[in-house]
Specification:
Layout lengths: L7 E12 L9 E13 L4 E5 L6 H8 L7 E6 L2 E2 L5 H10 E4 L3 H4 L6 H11 L5 H14 L16 H13 L5 E5 L7 H18 L2 E6 L2 H7 L2 E6 L2 E7 H6 L4 H9 L48 E4 L2 E3 L9
Parallel strand pairs: 3-8, 3-9, 6-7, 7-8
Antiparallel strand pairs: 1-2, 1-4, 4-5, 9-10, 10-12, 11-12
Length: 326
């Protein structure tokens, strides 16, 4: 694979769930968690997948690492569709693409010592002998900034930031090309969020690691990421270089996010002058899913779902009102 080719290519990814509400005999409802999602991650690149809670960004991340089952579309890793992988091929893929989760306390086994937690992926993938694994674990612990005495301790004996460092060390153990990090700092105190972000940035520089960084925190995404993919109600609204996005958001939803995001941290949410009520992923609007909240809505917005179309060589927007950003 040449440097110009994507490491990961998402094509038309759709993930839906059935939920059961109401009394006995009630028909299941369908949650449209992700609909026709497409974007790429290049080798060594950090891509920010951003949006509000319920936008579908975590579902996309979980589907990429095969923790959720896709309804349609493709996830191509080095040109191979990973949604079709089984057995040994799937195991090899999971070695190359690892995950870091939002809540480090929930993702670390409280009954295992840190040395066992970090070594577990090495054991699962049959990497090295006992002595090799011990050396690898000690090296990883130092790489994420923890002292050697941490090896003998349990997760509850660490702070939230330290537990997240342990989770990152576990993800790095098998030498992945890509880490899918789902809100990796949102459960941490503000005082330690910057430490973990700086660690991720350093790992990218040292290892050439690619990262899909899922977040609702626009300032963090702007600082850390090369490109952004903006999601709303399961669909991609815009893709852009991170530096350009904050300065000149194009999609009406993107403009709301940037205008309303606090300068230093905070959650993304639409502004107070939204045109209507937020719809539900159980019954998304026809046409553009953002039309019920868009201040620029016209009648045609309800008739067709706008494709994610190029605006420039490195930017794309899903909106029929091209005059708004041309």
């Amino acid at each position: 694979m040449s440097a110009a080719e994507p490491l990961l290519r998402i094509e038309g990814l759709t993930t839906r769930f059935q939920v059961h509400r109401g009394g006995l005999g009630a028909k299941p409802q369908v949650v449209h968690a992700a609909e026709d999602v497409s974007f790429t991650v290049r080798p060594g690149e950090i891509v920010g997948l951003i949006g509000e809670s319920g936008s579908g960004k975590s579902t996309v991340g979980r589907t990429i690492v095969r923790l959720e089952t896709a309804t349609a579309g493709r996830v191509l890793y080095r040109g191979q569709d990973v949604l079709a992988l089984t057995g040994r091929e799937l195991k090899r893929y999971r070695r190359r693409v690892q995950a870091v989760f939002q809540d480090p306390a929930a993702s670390l086994d409280p009954r295992m010592r840190v040395a066992e937690i970090i070594a577990e992926p090495l054991v699962v993938h049959g990497i090295g002998d006992r002595r090799d694994r011990q050396a690898r674990v000690a090296s990883l612990l130092a790489q994420v900034g923890l002292q050697a005495d941490a090896l003998r301790r349990y997760p509850h004996q660490f702070s939230g930031g330290q537990r997240q460092r342990i989770g990152i060390a576990r993800a790095l153990a098998v030498g992945p090309d890509l880490i899918v990090a789902d809100e990796p700092v949102s459960a941490l105190d503000v005082s330690v969020q910057a430490q973990v972000i700086n660690l991720l940035q350093a790992l990218r520089q040292e290892m050439g690691l690619a990262l899909l960084f899922i977040s609702h925190d626009l300032p963090t995404v702007e600082f850390l990421c090369d490109r952004v993919v903006v999601m709303y109600l399961g669909r991609v609204m815009e893709t852009a270089p991170a530096a350009e996005f904050s300065l000149s958001p194009l999609h009406p939803y993107s403009r709301m996010l940037v205008a309303d995001a606090p300068r230093f941290g905070g959650r993304l949410r639409p502004s107070a002058d939204q045109a209507g009520e937020a719809p539900s992923p159980l019954s998304p609007p026809s046409g553009c899913v953002f039309r019920t909240m868009c201040p620029h809505v016209i009648a045609d917005c309800s008739l067709t779902t706008p494709p994610l179309a190029p605006v420039t060589a490195d930017r794309a927007v899903a909106c029929i009102r091209r005059e708004l950003f041309s």
